[in-house]
Specification:
By secondary structure, the protein is of the alpha+beta class. The chain has 7 helices and 10 strands.
Length: 243
């Protein structure tokens, strides 16, 4: 009931997952990402531990293929599962259980896997792959959303539409982009709208976000911003008193 893309950007090293589903809050259950380690999508009668444990296996040096083999071998519900992994070096691996509801399958290439189940057809993942491969000049979050848009235009989930989400990590332990649309009649366009807000309101602040080795980058800019916010609040309070 879900279509997703898991990918790594060879230029920036960013890792991410974008997903859409006819299920509530798919963006909260499908993606698992860790900076410098890998990205995983676990879906179709989802087993979250495939994502949780998969990141641990990647952290300990297993490749995407070996991690996937280990995870699937240890899950007695494997016939109903769907799983995709891209490791820190961009190696992809994917699995679709024999009892996933059709159409179910994957399309993969260097640094990415597109996968889905209960889809209108194979064209969904093929369209996602084409979109991803033809947007090399864009940053990873934009490429992932364009892949989702292409999948939706190609038919998407044949049960309908409900949720979408994107998670992208870069160098720090926290994500640089983590957006969700949990319950919406047209979630992919809504995710695009929220992503536009993110680019306008959040991206300018990213250089000021704490880093593990530098908790106060661009600190003077942060202090000046704090002063502007405080001044704006004073002006609003004065205007309210005068009205």
């Amino acid at each position: 009931m879900t279509f997703s893309i898991v990918a790594r950007c060879p230029r920036s090293g960013m890792l991410g997952v974008a997903t859409s589903s006819k299920a509530l809050a798919g963006g909260g259950m499908v993606p698992y990402c860790r900076a410098g380690v890998g990205a995983i999508a676990s879906q179709s009668f989802v087993n979250p531990y495939l994502g949780i444990d998969g990141l641990e296996l990647l952290e300990h040096g297993l490749t995407a293929e070996r991690a996937l083999e280990r995870l699937i071998a240890g899950d007695p519900g494997r016939d109903l599962r769907q799983l995709a992994i891209v490791d820190k070096d961009g190696r992809p691996a994917a699995y679709t259980g024999d009892r996933c509801i059709p159409w179910a399958g994957e399309a993969s290439g260097p640094g990415y896997v597109c996968l889905g189940n209960i889809l209108e057809g194979q064209d969904v993942v093929k369209a996602m792959a084409r979109a991803f491969e033809t947007t090399l000049v864009e940053e990873l979050p934009e490429r992932l959303i364009q892949a989702l848009e292409a999948g939706q235009q190609a038919g998407g989930d044949r049960r309908g539409r409900q949720s979408a989400g994107i998670t992208v990590v870069s160098e720090e332990a926290y994500p640089v982009c983590d957006l969700r649309v949990d319950d919406h009649p047209d979630p992919v366009p809504e995710l695009r709208r929220v992503y536009g807000v993110y680019k306008h309101e959040e991206v300018p602040f990213l250089p000021m976000m704490p880093r593990r080795d530098d908790p106060t980058p661009e600190w003077q800019n942060a202090v000046r911003l704090r002063e502007r916010i405080e001044e704006s609040l004073r002006e609003e309070q004065l205007a309210a008193k005068e009205s």
